[in-house]
Design brief:
This protein has a domain of about 150 residues: Immunoglobulin-like (Sandwich), CATH 2.60.40. The chain is about 10% helix and about 35% strand. The strands form six sheets. It has a seven-stranded mixed sheet, with no helix packed on it. Strands 1-4-10-9-6 form a five-stranded mixed sheet. The radius of gyration is 22 Å and the shape is globular. With about 525 residues, it is mainly β. Bound molecules: CU-O-CU linkage (C2O) and copper (II) ion (2 copies). CU-O-CU linkage binds next to strand 6 and strand 30.
């Protein structure tokens, strides 16, 4: 049996050499926009590393994605996905990228509960895409998963009836086998649902001033400044990780904030890295919301882990006027090892791209309007996690087979070149197979098991509550409605199935390490 020890020590043992060094500064590639995944991937796979280095990135201002409010456009929004070139730091050359209505990432969409919005997604990319509304509770045929292909030149225009609590959701590309590539290239954006509750609670809501969207990612760059994407076995196994930390498409930028209470909407849009966030001066902050909306009461914290796909909203008090940095701790398996999370192992030298670093520099600008500095005592009422009668229990095992030469046990060696196989409950993802069929309107307990490393588990079209994490009750900031949870070893979640899904249009559930999802750690359900 392949162990966590082998996994940590092992990328080199899988026939891949030279991957242990940091790569931002040492890359191949002469990229230009408009190439498909394979062209770029093949070029990078040649591994003709160049010893020259990119200059250290300069710190520029935090880009704020434009806000598209459906109420200001008669309920119609338009997103155009296209190839472009994007500058990640003021002193960097531009890099080939994808974006919605821009060079990288997309606008923030603001939708109001009780309204119906039509979002036209136009594909001007050189490849097929889909647009998934992560966290939105809509029927599966509108969900934008792998079954909602938008071919180049086509436009997909779902009509979405918004009926869920105020929350920070997001949208991203989700084509099967290419989600990791397209999101890495830039196809992601924030999606905010409003129902008036934040306003009633007096929470900061001046977009881009004291209510700030932060899309957290990590990237590698070649010596020419191109985004470095590859799908080698190592990236498949640990997930693609970069040594440059980006926020809204800028490397460790600077954010001006008013001298008061500021709401930060945190989204982990990275392919694989968990961010372990804290402020450089150790200040505490309050978590007020997670994936599905507000939690019961603000949860005071000094450190917060956010896994790929997850969202948290936090309130931070900047009234002392001090400069402070938002930093992340090391996310390597080795550091987890040192933290005593896993069994004993000697740290390998590799994987520099999980290192700690600064994500964002905050500078207080006294000329910016201050909304207040009162943290509410209570937020909303959230039912107990075990409030509903449960129909069924199911087990979901998130599996990786890095030692099997590319196949699952019993399979012959896979020759597609797609790297190590992954599975759920012993089966690879199959777009034509339905894995589960819960009853519409029912509530089920799913037991999630993570093999070899922590996996962020995500379900489409449903929200859940966490009953237990590795045998313990969830901490306060995770005791709310979720759609994504980082499962270290084992978790129990209670899921409500309120949205219809059919054989032609099922919902996905999968690991949100995008490279694992693309390697088929994904499955489908319908409702009956
Ligand atoms: Cu964030 Cu299947 O998606
Ligand atoms: Cu999703
Ligand atoms: Cu995973």
């Amino acid at each position: 049996m392949f162990t966590r020890r082998d996994l940590i020590a092992g990328a080199g043992a899988m026939g891949v050499s030279g991957l242990a060094r940091p790569v931002s500064a040492h890359g191949a590639g002469h990229g230009s926009a408009g190439h498909g995944r394979h062209a770029l991937a093949e070029r990078f796979d040649q591994e003709d590393f160049d010893p020259a280095v990119l200059a250290a990135p300069e710190t520029g201002p935090l880009p704020i994605p434009p806000l598209l409010d459906a109420r200001q456009s008669a309920g119609k929004l338009h997103l155009t996905a296209a190839a472009s070139r994007h500058r990640f730091a003021p002193n960097f050359p531009t890099s080939a990228s994808y974006g919605y209505n821009g060079s990288f990432l997309g606008p923030t969409l603001r939708l109001t509960r009780g309204e119906t919005v039509e979002i036209a997604v136009e594909n001007r990319l050189p490849e097929m895409t889909t647009a998934h509304w992560h966290g939105l509770l809509v029927p599966a045929w509108l969900d934008g998963g792998p079954h909602n292909a938008i071919e180049p030149g086509e436009t997909w225009s779902p009509q979405l009836a918004i009926d869920q609590a105020e929350s920070t959701c997001w949208y991203h590309a989700h084509p099967h086998h290419a989600t990791g590539w397209q999101v890495y290239m830039g196809l992601a954006g924030m999606l905010l649902i409003e129902d008036g509750s934040g306003e009633r609670l007096g929470l900061p809501r001046n977009y881009g001033v004291d209510d700030i969207p932060l899309i957290l990612q990590d990237r590698m760059f070649t010596v020419e400044g191109e985004q470095f994407f590859r799908a080698f076995p190592r990236e498949r196994i640990l997930g693609l990780r970069g040594d440059m930390l980006t926020v809204n498409g800028a490397i460790s930028p600077q954010c001006s904030v008013p001298a008061g209470l500021v709401r930060l909407r945190l989204l982990n849009g990275a392919n694989a890295r968990n961010f372990h966030l804290y402020f450089s001066d150790g200040r505490s902050f309050h978590v007020i919301a997670t994936d599905g909306g507000y939690i019961r009461a603000p949860a005071p914290m000094t450190g917060l882990t956010i896994a790929p796909g997850e969202r948290f909203e936090i309130l931070v008090d900047f009234s002392d006027g001090a400069e402070v940095q938002l930093r992340t701790r090391d996310d390597s398996l080795e550091s987890r090892e040192r933290l005593g999370r896993l069994s004993t192992v000697s740290p390998s030298s590799g994987n520099q791209s999980n290192q700690a670093g600064t994500m964002l520099h905050f500078r207080v600008d006294p000329s910016l309007p201050v909304a207040g500095n009162r943290v509410p005592e209570r937020l909303v009422s959230v039912p107990r996690a075990d409030a509903d009668p449960v129909f069924t229990r199911r087990s979901v095992s998130l599996e990786m087979w890095p030692g099997q030469g590319g196949g699952l046990p019993g399979e012959s060696r896979v020759t597609t070149g797609s790297g190590p196989a992954m599975s759920i409950n012993g089966r690879r993802f199959d777009m034509d197979r339905i894995d589960f069929a819960p009853t519409l309107g029912s509530v089920e307990i799913w037991e999630i098991h993570s093999a070899l490393m922590p996996h962020p588990f995500h379900v489409h079209g449903a929200h859940f509550r966490i009953l237990s994490l590795d045998g313990r009750r969830p901490p306060a900031h995770l005791d709310g409605w979720k759609d994504t949870v980082l499962v270290e070893e084992h978790a129990e979640v209670v899921i409500r199935f309120d949205q219809p899904a059919t054989r032609a249009y099922p919902f996905m559930f999968h690991c949100h390490i995008l490279d694992h999802e693309d390697a088929e750690m994904m499955a489908q359900f319908i409702t009956v």
